[in-house]
Amino acid sequence: MEDRILLGRGRQFLELPQAMWKKHLTQVPQHSQPRLNFMTETHYRVRYFVIKKLLDLQTPIGPDFIASMLNMPQTKVEAALKEMEENLFFLVRNANGAVTWAYPLTVESTPHWLSFSTGSGAYASSADDAIAAAYVQGNLRNEYVSTDIETRCVHCDRVLNISIDSNMRFTVKEKNLGAYPLVFIPDVDWTNFKAANIIEAYCRNSVFYFNEECAREMRTEIEQVNGVYLTLEQCSYTTPVTQGTLFGFDRE
Predict the structure, then answer these.
(1) Nearest-CA neighbor of 80 among 42, 41, 24?
(2) Distance of alpha carbon 182 from alpha carbon 217, whole angstroms
(3) pLDDT tens, residue by residue, 155-187
(4) Least packed by Cβ within 10 Å: which of 9, 43, 121, 166?
(5) How far apart (Å, rounded) are the C-alpha atoms in residues 169 and 62?
(6) What is the pTM assigned to this prediction?
(7) Which backbone phi and psi does 122 adopt, to 5 degrees?
(8) What domains are defined for the chain?
(9) Phi, psi of 164 (to 5 degrees)
(10) In Å, what is the CA distance from 93 to each residue of 46, 78, 83, 101?
(11) Quick one: which of 231, 192, 203 has its CA closest to 4?
C-alpha cells in the first residue's frame, strides 16, 4: 500500500501521511453511527432487500412489490423508504415512489457498468460505490461475489476494466498500458448539507482516473471540488471500514 494519501485542494495536489489517514479511519464507526440511529429492523430488511433486487431485476423497485415479497404492510414499507431517503445515505426514489438508487447500485445510467458473477449487471452510483459493490453484495448474500467494472478515466477518457471481488481482491486489465487507477472521493460538508439527496454533490463527483498523472493534470487544468484520491489498494483497506459501518454488517 502507498505510504501517502493524495489530496486535492483547489488546483493543488497535496500529500498526507498514510498513518494520519489510517488514524482518521479508526473514527469512522463513531462518526457514522449517528446516521444509523433511526434504523429499525424494518429499515434494514427493506434496505437489504432493495439493494439485492436492484441487481437481480435491474428495474425500479416499487413499495407494493417490496411489501408483497417481505410480507409487510405497504404503508410500513413506504414509511421506511421515506425515512431512508431523507437520511441521504441509503436510497433515492423516482416520482412514482419506486427505488432507483440504493447505494451502491442504480438502475439509471452512469459511467460505471458492473457485471456480476451472479449473472446480473447494474450501474454503480459512483466510482467509490463501483469498488464497494462486490463487497456489499457478497455480505448481503452471504456468498462470494465478484464483479467486472467497465468505466473510463474522467480526464483522458481511456477505458478501465477492473475486476474486484467481495474479499476486495482486484486486477486491472490495462495495467500493462500504465493504468494504476485512482478513485476520487469528494469532500462534502454533511453537517450543513441541504440537498434532497447526495447524487449531485457526491456520486457525480466520485470518478475514476487512469493513473496519478491524469489526476494531477486535471486538478491543475480546471477548478474541481476538494477530495481525496485513493489507489485500489487503499480502497481495499478502507471499504470494509466505511461500507461495513454504513451497512450495519456488524450489528449482530
Answers:
(1) 42
(2) 13
(3) 999 999 999 999 999 999 999 999 999 999 999
(4) 9
(5) 34
(6) 0.93
(7) -165, 170
(8) 4-28+110-246 (3.30.450.410), 38-102 (1.10.10.10)
(9) -145, 145
(10) 13, 11, 11, 7
(11) 231
Contact 199, 101 (CB under 8 A): yes
Q: How far apart are CA 225 and CA 59, in angstroms?
A: 32
Cell triple for residue 36? 444509523
pLDDT at res. 247: 83
Residues 6+ apart with CB under 8 A from 146: 116, 117, 134, 163, 164, 165, 166
Q: How far apart are CA 66 and CA 152, in angstroms?
A: 34
Q: Mean pLDDT, the chain, as a whole number?
A: 92
- The residue assigned the cell 480546471 is 222
Binning pLDDT at 50, 70 and 90, where does residue 82 land?
Answer: very high
* CA nearest neighbour of 181 among 119, 122, 111, 128: 128
pLDDT band at 28 (very low <50, low <70, confident <90, very high): low
